[in-house]
TrEMBL record:
<keyword id="KW-0812">Transmembrane</keyword>
<dbReference type="GO" id="GO:0051537">
    <property type="term" value="F:2 iron, 2 sulfur cluster binding"/>
</dbReference>
<dbReference type="Pfam" id="PF00355">
    <property type="entry name" value="Rieske"/>
</dbReference>
<feature type="compositionally biased region" description="Basic and acidic residues">
    <location>
        <begin position="18"/>
        <end position="27"/>
    </location>
</feature>
<dbReference type="InterPro" id="IPR045603">
    <property type="entry name" value="QcrA_N"/>
</dbReference>
<dbReference type="InterPro" id="IPR036922">
    <property type="entry name" value="Rieske_2Fe-2S_sf"/>
</dbReference>
<keyword id="KW-1133">Transmembrane helix</keyword>
<dbReference type="Pfam" id="PF19297">
    <property type="entry name" value="QcrA_N"/>
</dbReference>
<dbReference type="InterPro" id="IPR017941">
    <property type="entry name" value="Rieske_2Fe-2S"/>
</dbReference>
<keyword id="KW-0679">Respiratory chain</keyword>
<feature type="transmembrane region" description="Helical">
    <location>
        <begin position="69"/>
        <end position="89"/>
    </location>
</feature>
<comment type="function">
    <text>Iron-sulfur subunit of the cytochrome bc1 complex, an essential component of the respiratory electron transport chain required for ATP synthesis. The bc1 complex catalyzes the oxidation of menaquinol and the reduction of cytochrome c in the respiratory chain. The bc1 complex operates through a Q-cycle mechanism that couples electron transfer to generation of the proton gradient that drives ATP synthesis.</text>
</comment>
<keyword id="KW-0479">Metal-binding</keyword>
<keyword id="KW-0001">2Fe-2S</keyword>
<protein>
    <recommendedName>
        <fullName>Cytochrome bc1 complex Rieske iron-sulfur subunit</fullName>
    </recommendedName>
</protein>
<feature type="domain" description="Rieske">
    <location>
        <begin position="282"/>
        <end position="346"/>
    </location>
</feature>
<keyword id="KW-0408">Iron</keyword>
Length: 365
């Protein structure tokens, strides 16, 4: 309401500059909650069109609605705590996160159970709120004129909100209050529990920059047999894996062992950081494409190119596996190799850079 207008309840067209001037904070503080609510509605130009007070306090309709809403909130809380139990239970039944060819029943059901418990909990929360709004809250249709706000509006609006809370009946509906607290505790705990992964993180250390390869680890064929320098013909390629437990199933460990032809050895141009990584006429490169992580499995001896069949990236082995065609922009990481005392190929260390499609590039070319 703007200055110069006649206020509701004023006499003889008496003019006021606004409710803030007419009603001081001290005067408003002496009024009851209901008086402030009614006064605020009057000065805000609120016209009540329809009022439905909802079920009468203590009536059978109210008690039945309270039980229904309370049950929904209780089920939401129960499912939230079930989510916590499943999540914590992963530490008992899944002590380590590792890939296996045949998943256990628990590991196969773990993620679906998490989704089902938390998803159903949120569904019951929504149903409970809808039912509570429809059956227990008073319904009022009103029209209000907009105007500038001052301390008058702050106090009367606050009183209206408090009055609404009183009318909601939560204070006297103990079953609803308890079910809400139970549900809130379950939902809150379910939302906080995943943060525990920051404390007990299975991917500690540098998972993107390390593989099962290490100093002295033998290069093995898929059948587990070791390799000597004389076992392959010039121009050949064979896929090798680290000779450690689970080495042939590690997603980032597959490596290509090449024996270069004499002309390739003469033309070979290693990157500065890869000097001495090969052994005689042998070199080893990661089998994981640096574009999208596909297995690089084709080798064209005539052109000295390693090909990825998924997106047609090509790497020149003479140029130390630099990409020369396709979407890949990083060279294939090279594994430093040598032979052990028995004459079998072993790794001199792990890869000095992350394999596959990583989020960083080494400025070393």
């Amino acid at each position: 309401m703007t200055a110069g207008e006649t206020r509701p309840g004023s006499t003889g067209g008496q003019q006021h500059s606004g409710p803030d001037e007419e009603y001081s904070r001290e005067r408003l503080a002496t009024m009851s909650r209901d008086e402030l609510d009614a006064l605020g509605a009057s000065y805000d130009g609120v016209e009540v069109l329809h009022v439905d007070p909802g079920p009468a306090p203590g009536s059978r309709l109210e008690k039945r609605a309270v039980r229904q809403v309370g049950l929904l909130f209780f089920l939401a809380g129960l499912l939230s705590f079930a989510f916590v139990v499943v999540y914590v239970g992963s530490g008992w039944f899944l002590p380590e996160w590792s890939w296996t060819e045949h998943e256990s029943t628990w590991s196969a059901l773990f993620t679906p159970m998490l989704g089902a418990t938390l998803g159903l909990a949120l569904v019951f929360v929504g149903l409970g709120l809808v039912l509570y709004t429809k059956k227990l809250l008073p319904h009022e249709t009103a029209v209000q004129a907009k105007h500038e706000a001052g301390h008058f509006d702050q106090m009367t609006t606050g009183a209206t909100l408090v009055t609404w809370g009183h009318r909601s009946g939560l204070a006297r509906r103990k079953l609803l209050t308890r079910s809400l607290l139970f549900m809130g505790g379950g939902i809150g705990l379910a939302l906080i529990m995943p943060l525990g992964g920051l404390i007990k993180n299975p991917n500690k250390g540098n998972p993107l920059g390390t593989t099962p390869w290490a100093k002295g680890v033998r290069l093995l064929r898929i059948d587990g047999t070791p390799i000597r320098p004389g076992d392959a013909e010039p121009g050949s390629l064979q896929t090798v894996f680290p000779g450690v437990e689970g080495g042939n199933t590690a997603a980032d460990a597959a490596t290509m062992l090449f024996r270069l032809r004499p002309e390739q050895v003469a033309q070979f141009q290693p990157r500065p950081a890869n000097e001495g990584f090969g052994y005689a006429d042998y070199v080893a490169f990661s089998k994981i494409c640096t574009h999208a992580g596909c297995p690089v499995s084709l080798y064209e001896q005539e052109t000295s190119r390693i090909l990825c069949p998924c997106h047609q990236s090509q790497f020149d082995i003479v140029l130390d596996a630099k990409p020369v065609f396709g979407p890949a922009v990083r060279p294939l990481p090279q594994l430093p190799i040598t032979v052990d005392s028995e004459g079998y190929f072993v790794a001199r260390s792990d890869y000095i850079e992350a394999v596959g499609p990583t989020y960083w590039n080494r400025e070393r070319i």
